[in-house]
Write a structure and sequence with these properties.
alpha+beta, globular
């Protein structure tokens, strides 16, 4: 008889000799407990598979995003808000225009491993490597371009991780809590993907081998973007390693609109000064990508 066969198929212990009744009852109770545990594990893994599969589908669907936004930053003794125009295209193209009352105050364009920054007020064009430190200083995101693009598009840190089952699934202690899928990465890094009661990605947290949180991103205010898909309009990220936090409140994200390569190339006329960014020290929260 299979371990988890229906109870009705189990032999009646009342017809067994008296000396075997207690043993049979004990075996039956152990078998029932094992069945319950096996059922719970199966349900949990099915839930984990559903979360990962839906996030993988979103990963495959999202190519680009552009929107106006309000960016709020706290860190390094500063706290400010400003309006931005944000354009991102996978895998690693990013354009951020910081706006002021007089117009465009600063433009950053990163494409792969290179970044260009234009400061209209100083009529200066800066070139260099698109490092986490550069994006931290000029876009307030201490990540390399590919990781920054994934963060801004509400994706997992790495698409490849979703092809494998999580190492652990953590269940909430209250109805409004998050279901956590935990993935153990090389060098002791741990990635937690948190899903809310609605099934959408609500949190991404990366923890170092020593237990310190590298970064945490919370996604909320999901809005319908058509085709049965929803997209977060509020992205709140904190970076304990730099002591900074940044929140983006998107206006009306436009998804998968064709974006020409020229969007990520800055070549303004009449530039007075060209500078090499060189090696800017500081941020180390690179993230994968």
């Amino acid at each position: 008889m299979p371990l988890c066969a229906p109870i009705s198929s189990a032999p009646s212990i009342s017809s067994a000799p008296h000396r075997l009744t207690l043993a049979a009852a004990l075996i039956a109770s152990v078998a029932l407990a094992a069945c319950a545990a096996q059922t719970n594990v199966s349900l949990h893994m099915a839930t984990a598979h559903t979360y990962a599969a839906e996030l993988a589908d979103t990963d495959a669907m999202l190519i680009s995003m552009q929107t106006g936004a309000v960016m709020e930053y706290t860190g390094g003794g500063q706290h400010f808000k400003l309006r931005e125009n944000i354009v991102v295209r996978r895998p690693a193209s990013l354009r951020v225009e910081a706006l002021s009352a007089l117009g465009v105050a600063l433009v950053l364009a990163a494409d792969g491993g290179q970044v260009t920054i234009y400061d209209p007020g100083k009529n200066t064009l800066m070139h260099g490597l698109a490092t986490a430190a550069v994006l931290d200083r000029y876009a307030r995101i201490p990540m390399a371009p590919e990781a920054a693009v994934r963060l801004l598009m509400g994706l997992s840190p790495d698409a490849g991780m979703l092809a494998f089952p999580p190492d652990l699934m953590i269940h909430p202690t209250d109805p409004n809590g998050l279901e956590i899928l935990r993935y153990k990465e090389p060098l002791g890094v741990t990635d937690d993907l948190g899903f809310g009661p609605d099934g959408y990605l609500a949190q991404v947290r990366e923890t170092r081998a020593d237990g310190r949180v590298n970064y945490e991103v919370n996604y909320s205010d999901y809005q319908d973007i058509g085709g049965g898909q929803k997209f977060p309009r509020v992205i709140a990220a904190s970076f304990p390693t730099t002591g900074a936090s940044v929140t983006f409140r998107y206006d009306n994200p436009v998804i998968n609109k064709d974006i020409p390569d020229s969007t990520f190339v800055l070549a303004p006329d009449h530039v007075v000064k060209h500078l090499d960014l060189g090696m800017i020290g500081g941020a180390t929260t690179a993230g994968r990508g």
